[in-house]
Structure formats: structure tokens, C-alpha cells
Amino acid sequence: MIGFAFPWLLALLPFAVYFGWRAVYRWGVPSSRPATKLARLTAHHLPIVLAALLALAAAGPEWRRPLEGVAPAVDFAVVLDGSSSMRILDDGKEDRWSAARRLLQTFIGRRPHDRFALVLFSAHPVTLSPLTADHKRLQRILQGLNLDARDDGTAIGSALLTAVRRLADSPARSRAILLLTDGAQNRGRVLPVEAAQEAAQSGIRIYAVGIGHSGESLVPIEGGGRVWLHVDTDPDTLKQVAAATGGEFFEAKDPAGLARALSAVDRLETTALPVDAPTEAIPLTKWLLLLATLLALPLAFDLARKRGRARPSWMEAP
Q1: DSSP 276
Q2: Which residues are within 8 A (CB) of 146 and not within 5 positions of it... i.e. 6 or more apart?
Q3: N or C: less crowded end of the chain, CB within 10 Å?
Q4: 132 with 116: CB under 8 angstroms?
Q5: In this structure, is residue 212 part of a structural domain?
């Protein structure tokens, strides 16, 4: 079937047709009037056809061909803690923030048939990407993501509720939220358990990964050096959140533990589900542009022939 990569650009089509209709072309001007019926028809309709072809080409037409097969299909919403405590060095080498982004990139790369949404939170949640199968784009987002401590805090409940909203319209039979956080909730009006209850009602599982441990930890500071920072974790709440939705809680005290937790989630969400046949999109834009070029050639030759000539008397207003 025919589809469009940029369907909103089809709104240009009526304007293009109107422009072509207003720009009626006359073959043979200024030497003679269009004499034959074919010449009169092409003189009137050629500008319309050319304008319509260019508008359709701009919308990115493509032939979508179904591909048969069954693939493991899960829609994930990744909820990543972006609070300042994620700068803590649990193993003395790599901070939690860098480890989480690196391992999430690996996790996404291992699941080529799944879609992902990405939610970053500190005091407030921000949707960095809606559900998408464009894994390269997700990898670029994670790779270029930086911590911003201007709005610090940990609003786990609000972030989970945002993730539930991102998955609400998903047609997938398997939907899951992957929560990575290293702190206890201290911001936001929505409690994590309340968000988990809404997720459970929607059939969404939550896999909660608690990063690090409570107590004093080393944090690098700008200009060099490290300071001690006290962080409180809340594994009990994360366990309740996971249990309420049929998911699981994982404890990750260092990057190696985080890698094990994400590998466990990867193994848990591997059920092969029958899905709508994926499609292969074959772009058609170049063919429309080629057709427009071929139709425009005789017009261009005729315009070149008439260039610089005076308008004939029969075209002058009486």
C-alpha cells in the first residue's frame, strides 16, 4: 500500500493545484495560439500536474510492503533518574550516570524488535522520546545526555505516571516500565505506589532497579577532587512498586550489579508474541520527481524558444 513519510505536507497539495490552475500555460506563444485539442488540454493541465507532483514528492510517498514473521515485541518506557546523586562513584571509576546510560544503550541494542520511550526525571519528569523503534535515535539521545542539577530532587511517582501515559495507547500485548533510580522520593505529589496501581490497572509491569546504597558516598566536583554525599535509598518502596504490577525489583550496588539487573530484565521479557506484520518502506519520491522532470522538459524548451520575444497582438488587452 501507499503511505507517506511526512503526511502533514499533503496540506500543500490544494495550494499547489490552485497555483497550477492559475498559471495556465499557452503552447507556441507568442508565435501562435494553441491550435489542436491536445495542445489546448496540455496547456491547461500541465502546470496543475507538475505542481501536484512536486507537492506529493515533498510528502515522501513510499510503497509499504508487509514482511511476514513473528518477533519478540515489547513496548518499554525507560525511566531514568537524573538527580545529582547519580554522579556518585560506586566502584571508584565510573559514576552511576555514565554506567546507567552505557548499559541502557546495550540493553536497547539487544532488543532490535522492541519500541522504547525515554523519560528523564529529577524534581520533574521530562519525556525525551515517545515510543519509537528508531534505536539509533535513542542511542544518540542517551550518549549526548547530561545531568542538570538546577532542578534537583527525586520525583519517582510523577516519573512513573508519565511513563504510564507514554504506554497508555500502545497496542502491544506486552508493556513494561524499566525504572532506574538511586534515591528515595523527595519531590512530586504522586506517590510511587499510586503510580504503580495505575500501571497495574493498565496491565503494565514495572521493573525497578535500585542503584547504589544508603549512606555516605564519594561524588566528583567541578575543578577536581571529591566530596562525601549522604544519600537515602528506598528499596522497600521499589519492591512494593514492582510487586504491585507483577514486575520485579533488582538491587544494583555498582555498575556490575546494574549490568546483571538489566540482563535479568532482558531474559524476563523474551516471550515471542504474534504481532502485526512489519512493513518495509520503499521510497517513491525519486520516481515522482523523475516524472515531473520529464513532463517539464517540453515546457522548458518552449519557454527557452520564446525567451526575449515580444508578446503577440492577439494577447494584448482590447
Answers
A1: P
A2: none
A3: C
A4: yes
A5: yes
Q: Which residue has the cell 520529464?
A: 294
State how far the Cα of 176 lies from the Cα of 270, in Å rounded to an integer.
Answer: 12
What is the torsional sign of CA 100, 103, 108, 109?
Answer: positive
In whole angstroms, how large is the CA radius of gyration of the chain?
30
Cell numbers 542538570: residue: 148
Please choose, from the candidates 181, 58, 65, the residue with its C-alpha nearest in 3D space to the C-alpha of residue 119: 181
Domain residue limits at 58: 2-65+279-315
Whether a cis peptide bond, with omega within 30° of 0, leads into 112 is: no
Name the domain count of the chain: 2
Q: Are residues 88 and 211 in the same domain?
A: yes
Q: Dump pLDDT digits (tens) for 39-85.
A: 767 777 888 888 899 899 998 888 877 655 545 578 999 999 998 88
Task: Tell me if the pTM is above 0.85.
Answer: no
